[in-house]
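To whoever is on call:

I kicked off a structure prediction for a single chain this morning and the downstream step that reads the tokens threw a length-mismatch warning. I double-checked the sequence; it's 233 residues and nothing unusual in it as far as I can see. Pasting both halves so you can look.
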Amino acid sequence: MDKLKKISVKPFLNMNLIPECSDSEGKDLYPLYLQITYNRKNTQIRSKYGMYYESLNDPAIRNIIFFECSLAEKLVRYEINNTKKEYTLAGLGGRYEVYATSIRIVIGDYLKDKLQFELKKTNSPFYDILNFKNKRKYFEDFYNASLLLFKDFNKKTSTEFKYEVNIYQIYRDFEPISMGGYNFPTIIDWVYGNYKQQFEQKLVRVLKNNSQIDKTIEFVDKLIHARLQTIKK
């Protein structure tokens, strides 16, 4: 198989769909899609981070387009390099949805589930107040609320949970959310390229010994590979 064939990614607004929303002036808005072409075959996948727009000239999506086109090309290149059969774009949309996930979200989702378990141990009447089904709230939101709501929360949580929260906080400090918002590391950056090595080098500055560094890398690696198992075969 020729692994040097060109990969192209072209953003577009999918105007073939029935408009789902409009702006304040009543103009129809359409979702952002990516058309990926490889070996004279193409597929169209929906943007993971884009919303609805009137035009590709909308300043709000410039950073998103650059970010996602890069991710999509990286994923295709990764898959080409890791398949022994003739590569096909079939099913790429589902795989992209997972591979384009922020590593910070991967860790946070795991800890969000873990937090629920830890809170149950408090037997507090406030447990039912937190709506963990709310997808718009992230681990940090629930964690900060828990510190305020639950008396002696840190005393009642496990040593393992405290350690994992510390890993999340280290990662958050390494990769703060920027003003542009679209330059964060994703799963595909971890499994393909040198981001995993870059993260390990950053850990050297804050952790005391190689054992802690190895344990942290192993923890993140385990969560990422668990998320990859959710891809439908």
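Update from on-call: the warning came from a stale cache, not from the record. Cleared it. Sanity check on the structure: The mean pLDDT is 91.
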